[in-house]
Amino acid sequence: xxxxxxxxxxxxxxxxxxxxxxxxxxxxxxxxxxxxxxxxxxxxxxxxxxxxxxxxxxxxxxxxxxxxxxxxxxxxxxxxxxxxxxxxxxxxxxxxxxxxxxxxxxxxxxxxxxxxxxxxxxxxxxxxxxxxxxxxxxxxxxxxxxxxxxxxxxxxxxxxxxxxxxxxxxxxxxxxxxxxxxxxxxxxxxxxxxxxxxxxxxxxxxxxxxxxxxxxxxxxxxxxxxxxxxxxxxxxxxxxxxxxxxxxxxxxxxxxxxxxxxxxxxxxxxxxxxxxxxxxxxxxxxxxxxxxxxxxxxxxxxxxxxxxxxxxxxxxxxxxxxxxxxxxxxxxxxxxxxxxxxxxxxxxxxxxxxxxxxxxxxxxxxxxxxxxxxxxxxxxxxxxxxxxxxxxxxxxxxxxxxxxxxxxxxxxxxxxxxxxxxxxxxxxxxxxxxxxxxxxxxxxxxxxxxxxxxxxxxxxxxxxxxxxxxxxxxxxxxxxxxxxxxxxxxxxxxxxxxxxxxxxxxxxxxxxxxxxxxxxxxxxxxxxxxxxxxxxxxxxxxxxxxxxxxxxxxxxxxxxxxxxxxxxxxxxxxxxxxxxxxxxxxxxxxxxxxxxxxxxxxxxxxxxxxxxxxxxxxxxxxxxxxxxxxxxxxxxxxxxxxxxxxxxxxxxxxxxxxxxxxxxxxxxx
Length: 669
Ligand code: ADP
Ligand code: ADP
Ligand code: MG
Description:
Distance between the termini: 70 Å
CATH architecture of the largest domain: 2-Layer Sandwich
Largest sheet: 8 strands, antiparallel
Helix content: 25-40%
Bound molecules: adenosine-5'-diphosphate, magnesium ion
Number of helices: 17
CATH class of the largest domain: Alpha Beta
Number of strands: 38
CATH superfamily of the largest domain: ATP-grasp fold, B domain
Mean pLDDT: 92
């Protein structure tokens, strides 16, 4: 076994790998960019080497510099994590040439699976079922269109080099094919430097079910069951679970065997995932009619590998290290067992109500549910950040992964919801409440899974009511009273065993903003008790019960709410089982001018790159029309017209890097 490895990654996966290495007594070397000098992964490793600037191509994608760091520190092997260099066959080859072990498959296997079209041709030969489609080398647009017609609409055009949900276009009808092809090729060229595409049948209401495979260098290969990753937004996974609900045992075995055959067809070694798209022609109630087709193979450890670890009780990073060190697979197929049900939620910095626009900022508060080991209660958090760290625009928007395990799916779902309710992140937008809404949909609860779950349940998922205004108002009043009392009488009034002790008369009104909506909150003392009134509603008796620091325990009439409270400036964040709320109290000294609209809607919502303009100077535009497309944090965002008008000037060119808030163009009347 190795005694020292270098981890060529950052964030949660670098931390994840470091944790197993430490458990096995293997020393670790971190690499880091400027922005990551104080990152958690650097702190977790035994040594760290600075490799360059913030953009991945100035640091985490610089294979030569990373290899030099491995040499300089005496690391015998490199774990690439996922993303970055993990599926780069040239880097794997350079490692080999330098005498450093690449903890991953042989370069030839990465190459064989690297391009979707080519890997499909290989899989066809290996007898693995494929979605009907065209994956030839001839890229003549007329030919591609004829193939689409032969396959039958709707079709999916996919960038052969694509990944991360990018470079895909659904085409509903022949008339739209040419435009969709051009746009897909443009994105593929920009993102992957290769505009080759494939065309395949767009499967309706499919499930995404993938098989974890593992092979050793001695010819052994097994599958570690499946994961269902059907809950997606923008073709990217949101929730992942194992086992796949309702998957008939016979189909599980067929998929497992097909996945092992796929791996063996390319001489695979190490951890890999074979992704299948699964058609459900008989609907949710006829699982025996499911048909699965090979989609792609990811030749690395997958983001969602922890759900497999949870149900098998195995450490997949340990397996990777053993296999890379030349050892046989620790277990044979017949020895592998699964227990219970696991679900992972990807916690991302993003605004679900604004088309999942990625968010950046500082983790002003980051409080996590208590993690337990998988043998006792089962809540696991994999992250690469700490309170006070920044989520920057340089890397992707995943903050953490929350994984739960329980005996049944129903229990796992309840456990995940409870853990999400305990997770408090303040300082930037996150998808935490959105994830809770997804768990609450009938589709998810009843395991009616397919990749259209989010759009289908949109009414229950987007623009949902936050926690009731009275509770937010009560928390605000309690907090303001406590801070006034703390000034008058030191010590935390909430920690007194008998709860709130009043000293002196109470009669206050606060002007507040509840999710941007102005409200007045009144509080007064009435016959020895506190009473609360929101706007011109009724007075209600409010009781403040003792609660630990950072929490509130409120009672309005007979209803009670316990929650966590984070106060940031004049903004109060209340997180409770029922949901979350944000309420801000006015600073009487501040003027009421609103600066948030200053940029007028034509500004970059975040730092990124201008991909294209859909208009030119002089064009008349209608409110809501797409004016420009930007790319940031691996996603495209449209900038739309805030009103009717005419384009006066374009202030940037495609390809330009722009700062957050930079105005991209000007509109005349
Ligand atoms: P999964 O492991 O669930 O299949 P993805 O395919 O979404 O995950 O990608 C895993 C990670 O790999 C992402 O979080 C991202 O960091 C990285 N990644 C994926 N595709 C790309 C890409 N085209 N360019 C850069 N990084 C990518
Ligand atoms: P990536 O490399 O970006 O992960 P994939 O080929 O794995 O690309 O596809 C990503 C997602 O796109 C799938 O999980 C699925 O939701 C959807 N998808 C892919 N192929 C099809 C198809 N033929 N029909 C319907 N949906 C598909
Ligand atoms: Mg995929």
